[in-house]
Amino acid sequence: MEIYADELRSLSFKVYDNELRKRKNNKVCEPLKTDRHLVVYYGQGYLLKGVALQMQKLYSEARQCVQGYADLAWFELLDEVGLKEIEKFRIWAKANLLTYSLLMGEIGILPDYLEFLSKYQVEVPAGLLTIMEAACKYDLDIEDILDQYSEEIQRFFEHKSAVNIGRYYNFRYYKVEYELKKGHINRALDEILYCLDLADQLNNQQAFKRNTALFSAYRQHASEQHERIYQEISREVHSMKLKMYSLSLLLVFGLCIGIAKTGTVSDTKNTVQMNTHGVGG
Known about the structure:
Layout (H helix, E strand, L loop, with lengths): L1 H23 L13 H18 L3 H12 L9 H24 L6 H10 L4 H15 L4 H6 L1 H5 L7 H20 L3 H18 L2 H13 L6 H39 L2 H14 L3
């Protein structure tokens, strides 16, 4: 991802520089057409590189990337849309500086982080994930924060995009560790069941297996309700596997029909592609 982020930043700056030169030379040309404002591509280059470094736990290096999009007011060719975009980057820069600092163990900035989240509610899901990760990493007690944002945590379910479901999964998975460290086995089992459901939604088999193993490890502490929910999730997943297996049989059957009708490998190949691309519309 780092390479692509660098290429995105480099390419967008070259395009920007070319556009700027043409305008300063008073060249008559059609305006540049892009899906997003040019400043977005430039800022995203730095932001995505920071994300890639964060995934490698290189928080100090990620923090350095923030300076690349914290203040983009120097960017010319800005219209009203562009000005709104650089304001977004300014807010994200502030948030990510706090994020990387907290993950590096600078616990003293937590009040500033909470103040920031109170001003920008849309950043709460990402912020809570960071706080939960830091709590696990540095053994912080964040019960007051979890109580304060209990309604927001429940509303995570309202966000159905893969990115938000993935974020919610990570939050719940860190919370399993958080509760286990505190000796709250029943709460940890609650979180494991959340994780199983979310892993199923994400179709992440590795995550599902990991949480199944966790549930098995603490199953002797499970309540009847825990067992009931676990069995419901397991049945649902098993049912989905059967549907997928049935679909695969239909695809194979279609493949066999194609071979029988045409007797050629090339036509068979086209049949497989057609069936595959048609799945899900």
